[in-house]
Amino acid sequence: MSAQDNFQADSRVRLFHASLVWPLQLESLTDSDAEGRHWEIFESLEEAHPWQRVDDEFTDDPSNFKERHYREFIAFLPYVQQFLYGEGRSRRLSPDDPPGRSPLHVFRRKDIARLRLTLRKGQVPIELHIMHIDLYFFHDLDLVQLNLEVRGENLPLDTVRDILFRFGRAYPSGWEEGGEGLHNSYLAEWLDVDGKVVARSDTERRDKFLGFVCRHRSPCISEHWACLLRPLVLAHSDEPGNLRYRLIEFHRMPVMAYLAIDRPRALGHKDWVRIGLAATLHPDEPLPVNEPAVAEFEKRFCQDRFWTDSEAGPNTRFICTGNALTVVGDAAVPFFSDTELGVLAQFRHQYFLVFLIAHLHRASLLVFSEVLVDAVNDLNIRNDVSVRRFKRRIRANFETFLRFTHRYWFHELSERQHLQATFRMCSNHLHNDDLYDEVRDEIREMSLYLDSDSQRRQSNTVVRLTVITILGLIATVSTGYFGMNIIPFGDGTPHERLLHGVLATSVIVAFVLFAVSRSKRLSDFLEAVSDERLGITGKFRAFWSAMADRER
Questions:
Q1: How many angstroms from the chain centroid is the CA of residue 244?
Q2: Is the pLDDT at 6 greater than 50, yes or no?
Q3: Cα(306)–Cα(334) distance, rounded to whole angstroms?
Q4: Residues 500, 487: contact at Cβ < 8 Å?
């Protein structure tokens, strides 16, 4: 065994942080009886769940405002600051124009203190401390993001890789011969502050997952994740609740990882590949050296600006694959593990927000696309109610997309080069720009279709009005030439005059309705009359076709 292999076998992660950022689509409230927005309804149910509203991620007391808060704030450009923290506050502002609040609405639960993981059958459980569990709601978006951060200390590197591979899977991708879930942790348990089990995973219940997919054509999530999200309930489940969610993408949740290890420069190329691709690369499988992601690993996924053995760059390597952002550094460097001003503080605040925004962009665009697909699938052109509902949904989706573009869609987050480079790398791996262009074109096509359909209906109405106007013009000119009182209606008794009025009105209404019913064919006849190349016989045939019950 080589020295490098010995190092890999004995290497330990002195400090480990992992943050899940799981986006979920919320079902629209427009067709339900619930009143208010998603977070307002969620907040109104506070007596029935442990989630509590976080009014301000910072603090209103300047004496408690730390430097890490300040550094987090100034790391972003002003329009991103408004998105994350709301508009600037000032007492000199007009009361009629108060400062706008942030479109983020954060809820946090504190009843769960630890996560106990049994990675494989027969292994000793590992306990990780829960740093925080948050739900992020967004104004104007049918979207919520779950953020779960866990912390561990003095763990073997192989164990950390196994955690990153198995942790953060909503449901099993299959089952082993022994019945345990494939690629999942053998058992995951939420523990409260007293060490009691709040909920545990049930990935071994094969019949539950198979039956749910068979009945609903939608995946079912494991019980420990469902328990964590309540009172949000899965869209197709039988649980009651107005706030319902559905999965947007694959069952593997986006993850951020922070690893403080001894002598990271002693790691070889294969070790770095397994760390950077830990969420997708099975720990027991041979390294696929011929795959482009492995062969071009450093070029595609690594940022090595701070990968220098000096005080300015404390041996810190950033690895971003889109769905995973991993920060690895030297545990012996105090700045790397500093929770206030060091790399760990930046990882938990600045880089977390960068990762959250990148996945917010992708999830929002996928939700927009899903709404369009669902609207088209629900459309029945022979049903007027379905057509009107389709138009309302498309127009509402278009308006929301415009607000998303101006409120949430950024290309530049920060003037700090490394922060901006991380965001750009994450967005590129997620293909956010291509997805945005695709969704924008789809919404534009739908909008153009609605506009063209409205113009077609308006043109048909104009045709009918033109025909009625021409026929009315004939009657008006004729009666005007002979005088308006051809028939002396005023010479009879009141009953006779009333009867004459009713009969005349009935005849005129019948004539107008007949003209409207034949307006399209009458317009064709008028076009034939105006055609100088058409003879008298052709014009007469056009008139006969307009009067006949059959189409031309």
A1: 14
A2: no
A3: 15
A4: yes
Question: Is there a domain that residue 210 lies in?
Answer: yes
Tokens of 225: 């994740």
Pairing of strands 233-234, 244-247: parallel
Distance of CA 243 to the CA centre of its chain: 15
pLDDT band for 56, please (50, 70, 90 cuts): low
Residue 427 confidence (pLDDT) above 50: yes
CA-CA distance, 465 to 187, in Å (whole number)? 73
The closest alpha carbon to 52, from 105, 116, 129, belongs to 105
Say if residue 236 is in the same domain as residue 259: no
3-state secondary structure of 328: strand
Residue 478 is assigned to a structural domain of this protein? yes
Going by C-alpha positions, the residue among 200, 167, 162, 166 that lies closest to residue 183 is 166
CB 134 within 8 A of CB 107: yes
pLDDT of residue 196: 95
Quote the pLDDT of residue 532.
62
Q: Which residue matches tokens 């107008």? A: 512
Element (H, E) at 361: helix 350-377
Q: Report residue 517 as tokens.
A: 């019913």
Q: What is the DSSP string of 218-232?
A: S----HHHHHHHTTS
pLDDT in tens, 496-539: 767 777 777 777 777 777 766 666 666 666 666 666 666 677 66
Choose among 422, 351, 338: nearest CA to 66: 338
Question: Are residues 245 and 190 both part of a single domain?
Answer: yes
Compute the distance between CA of residue 420 and CA of residue 80 in angstroms, rounded to an integer: 12
Q: What is the CA radius of gyration of the chain?
A: 34
Q: Does the structure show a pLDDT above 80 at 36? A: no
Among residues 315, 320, 316, which one has the least CA distance to residue 302?
Answer: 320
List b or e across 383-399, with b for residues whose CB sees 16 or more CB atoms inside 10 angstroms. eeeeeebbbebbeebbe
> How far is Cα 500 from Cα 210, in angstroms, rounded to an integer?
76
Total count of domains within the chain: 3
Q: Is the overall model pTM greater than 0.85, yes or no?
A: no
Give dist(CA 175, CA 549) in Å, integer: 68
Q: Which residues, in sequence order, are CB contacts of 385 under 8 Å at separation 6+?
A: none
Residue in the block written with tokens 């629209």 = 28
What is the residue-wise DSSP string for 221-262?
A: --HHHHHHHTTSEETTSS---S-EEEE-S-SBPPEEEEEEES
Cis omega (within 30 of 0) for bond into 95: no
Residue 528 lies in a domain: no
